[in-house]
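[User] I wish I could look at a protein chain and see how it folds. I have put the entry right below:
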Amino acid sequence: MIKLENEEQLWFPVHVRARHERTICNELLKRGYEVYLPMIKRRRRWSDRYKILEVPLFSGYLFIHMDRRLKYYVLEVPGVQGFITFQGEMAHIPDFQIDFIHRMLERPETFEVVNKVIKTGHKVRVLSGPFIGMKGIVKDIKNKSRMYVNIDHIQHTLCIEVSEYDLELIGDGTS
């Protein structure tokens, strides 16, 4: 890594190619950068089984500790899509917030991150339970575990209690 005089080392969030976070993290580490890729264990469903996988806490993002003047070197790394900016300036994350993420990940059962945004009007497919495979449109959401879904197959509105994790968006999430 290139060293600059009078460096101000800050944590910067970097947007990277989704599902390539580990590869990009390893490449940045090889180039001498200090990189943080928070990972969490998640239960994923395959057609015939469930499996526990370690996945990025923030899909498509990692954090790099560096001087902001080195951003162009980081942008040269394949898969790095850019830095997060706020009002035209590179956003940086205070050290205490990075430390908070470290502490939070020591007890992953105490929090929940929801990347999937299911809203009224979205087309969905049920992934588990008695309605598995059924498709419909979300009509109303009471909370993350109780949604009113109009099931296409029978043309009636059924109140089904299903977790947001057990629903899959169909298409781009709009009706």
